[in-house]
Amino acid sequence: MVRTIFFVTAFIITAAICLAGIYINPNYFLWFILFAPLIVIGTWDAFQTKHAIRKNFPVIGNLRYILESISPEIQQYFVERRTDGAPINKNKRAIIYERSKNLGATHPFGTEENVYSEGYEFITQSLYPAPLLELEPRVMIGGADCKKPYSASIYNISAMSFGSLSKNAVMALNKGANMGGFYQNTGEGGIAPYHLQGGDLVWQVGTGYFGCRNEDGSFSAERFTENATRPEVKMIELKLSQGAKPGHGGVLPGVKNTEEIGRIRGVKPGITVLSPAGHSAFDGPMGLIKFISELRELSGGKPVGFKLCIGKAEEFEDICKAMATTEIYPDFISIDGSEGGTGAAPLEFANFVGMPLYVGLVIANKLLIKHGIRQKVKIIASGKVFNGFGILKAMAMGADLTQSARSMMLSIGCIHAQLCNTNTCPVGVATQDKRLMKGLNVNDKYVRAFNYHKNTVHAFLELLSATGSKHPNDLSTENIMRMTEDGDSQTMTEVIENWTYYQKYIGKSLEARPVSKS
């Protein structure tokens, strides 16, 4: 729309100056000194393919880059801060953009954290660093009942649906995943043609059963088999809940529900789609475990797991007991945190429901150990894991691998405009508006997704080496320390064991170091 306005305005201004110069006074041609550069800049912006903001908003979009060019002076306005006003870390967007563009990984001056503030976390490095791993360690997912195990990257793309994201964004992420050897989680919106660009897929099945539903919204085994047996689908994830709105079903605003999306999801287009809060295909822990076994069989033996944001620890323990009793195990469990993001959620659910990632991660890991089944299941951490430290901390707290949605979205151009639910995303990432979508150049952005993944994994491997660990399995809660309110510091082992909730459900008898995940 803005591009059209620009060209119409440029034509009117040019015509007006020319007519005034010819028929009134030649001095009117001097106005071209002012307007000609703007017209040239705007035309260049509209036809270049590197920057979505400039392409979608010719001329005025350059203001963003002008502000970025004076970064040190305005950076204070882009740094997240604690409630006491102290900055808590460097702008996450800047880190992601630098890595996605291969602009380097070093920064001047010292830490930008207040290292003596309560909650500051740091790694205990070794005087004897381990050799830096040349290749990223992979994680094999698939238990005894899995016929087609999958070798996964330690860092992947978390769930984002086509519908929430534009087709260009989905394609860019999928091509980046293909180039870098990591997977893309489809989100609960089903499998779109734009997911089929060569990258590995984790197909997420939510409570709406999009892509595997009957007309009445119930689960369709036949349609599930059709999609689950696609060669691009490497794993299936059953979504019980997500961190951004646990206890609430998915939301697709009607303004983003196009004819194509309605067809893929099997719903009427143009209406706001609210997924049920719970599943209709099963009930209770036993029902969940048996349904997972059914999905594994229907998929031809592919890895099947479930995703949740933990609320009540006793309910997760009931699932562990059901596994131990039936000897039926999911191949993986994705633990989401309440800090996770979404394109649309009720404010109260986003802010006040569910456990944060690292609390839920510890509870899940320790309960699986408590019931003697940790080695049967892989754990995936999902929720604001955006850098090497985030990967290392997640693994130290019990995860086998990680995935992230927000950071991957930022790597392909998201600027946190927070207009995802309005269909007016200015960079074409979270919109179905074709005019805005054009700003996202797939062939440019997928390379950025690849670069971001590669550089972030490398950063993790450097941190791993610094701890003296030779493999991620060597990490434990002893590797992370946290500053306390009185200026003291504790290992995460001590922090966790002092949690009343932890003591209630797990006790202090378990070792801090996780059992082998191999």
What integer is the average pLDDT? Answer: 86
Can you tell me the CATH superfamily of the largest domain?
A: Aldolase class I
Strand content: 5-15%
Report the C-alpha radius of gyration, rounded.
25 Å
Overall SS class:
alpha/beta
The count of strands amounts to: 15
CATH hierarchy class name of the largest domain: Alpha Beta
* Total individual domains: 2
Instruction: Estimate the global geometry from the Cα principal axes.
Output: globular
Helix content: 25-40%
Tally of helical runs: 19
The N- and C-terminal alpha carbons lie at a distance of 53 Å
Strand order of the largest sheet: 4-13-12-11-10-7-6-5
Low-confidence stretches: 72-90, 509-516
CATH fold descriptor of the largest domain? TIM Barrel
Biggest sheet features: 8 strands, parallel
CATH level-two architecture of the largest domain: Alpha-Beta Barrel
